[in-house]
Amino acid sequence: MPTVSLLAADPPISQAGSGQLALAALASIAAVVLLITVLKLHPFVSLLLGCAVLALVAWVPGADAIDSVIKGVGNTAGSVGLLIALGAMLGQMLAESGAADRVVGAVTDRLPRRMLPWGIALVAAVIGLPMFFEIGVVILVPIVILIARRTRMPLLLIGIPALAGLSILHGLVPPHPGPQTAIAALKADQGLTLIYGLIVAVPTLIVAGPLLAIVLNKMMPLPAGAAGAPSVPGEQGSEPGLAAPAKHRQPGVGAAIFVVLVPVLLMLPAAIVNLWVSDGIVKSILDVLGTPVVALLIAVIVAYLLLGVGTGMGTRGASDSLARGLPGVAGIILIVAAGGGFKQLLVDAGVGKVIADAASSAHLPVLLLGWLVAVGIRLATGSATVATITAAGIVSGLAGGLTPSNVALLVLAIGCGSLFFSHVNDAGFWLVKEYFGLTVGQTLKSWSVMETVISVVGFLLVLALSVVV
């Protein structure tokens, strides 16, 4: 997730020992799961109560615990929340203008049914190359759901390849924040890391995307029209408040695809320039335009003008269309923000530091050590970025004696570990759960399993590369 917190930046707010902190983490996670699955309590309230359990068991002072949770909620709502809101407005305009139908038709009409999961995986990977994971989710998921319903294909068969494409690129390929920070910490070669990252990403995507989707679909079939699947704005049969406005001209396929790709077109140049240029006015301008919130805001404005006003909705109709996208994601924003607060309290209490200290004292091969440290911190804190930053800091002293190729592979090993088994302390877990309309159990059996497969397969490929380079 975009919110970053360095585990070593401040002393832990809990004075509890390592065993007690580990118990507190397990107790709080168990409390969240039980409250949601057994008592059917809303995830937003459950996550806040999980924070209370964590603070009590870890002996975190009340004021410090509240400050930590508020900080995490604020950081997550300010970054991910803005992306969700803007993405919802963009998605609503795409749906009501007919642009989403055009994009879906462009995909389904050109690919045979059996190739759709592969095509979706490729599209997600291309979009995910410059994009933050959250932007890719808010743009792609409504289209994925429409494709599943239009073709009557199971939701997971289409959804897993899309999520895998976005997640793999986010965790392994610079200039995403995790890999980029690890490159800086380990002084890795940017070009080598990018090349090796793409070499690892492609086969990992094949295994954790279309192939895994077939297995998960057999284990847990979810029809596209299942009760748990959310209705898509503007779609027939969706909620009454989301009905499309008066008739207007349908946008062309080119215009529809252009609007979807606007964030990519804004973020990709900045990503490319940042690989080779360290400063300058052009870099500064591209950095601003490529900032996720700015890129998505511009995409919303383009959609308003091109798909709204430009198709005859009028300024009032186009504005109302954007507004109708917001109520449906209010709950998602709150749940994801609460997940960010839970994650922040785990970090500030020192849970991640306990795992990091234990791993750093182990005598293990450096690639395995980097992966295991990242796995442990990911499980404890829920943040892939925190796991990457911390693991890179721990093993940075060992990177000096490695070849440039092995340093680049160490970055990737850490990146793979940072994706391991996303669960209830990860705001991304709740983002996927709410967008796909899954239960906690279904999300664990699909999204969490997919993330684990990405982590393990990716790491095995990193080890294989280390033998030949």
What does this structure look like?
Helices cover 73% and strands 0% of the residues. The chain has helices at 18-37, 43-57, 62-97, 99-108, 116-128, 133-151, 155-172, 177-186, 190-219, 253-276, 281-290, 292-308, 314-324, 330-349, 351-360, 366-381, 384-395, 404-417, 427-436, 440-468. α7 runs antiparallel to α9 (190-219), α7 crosses α20 (440-468) and α15 runs parallel beside α17.
Overall mean pLDDT: 84
Q: State the end-to-end distance.
A: 31 Å
Largest sheet: none
Query: Would you identify the regions where 5 or more consecutive residues have pLDDT less than 50?
Result: 1-9, 233-246
Can you tell me the overall shape? Answer: globular
Helix run count: 20
Structural class based on helices, strands and sheet pairing: mainly alpha
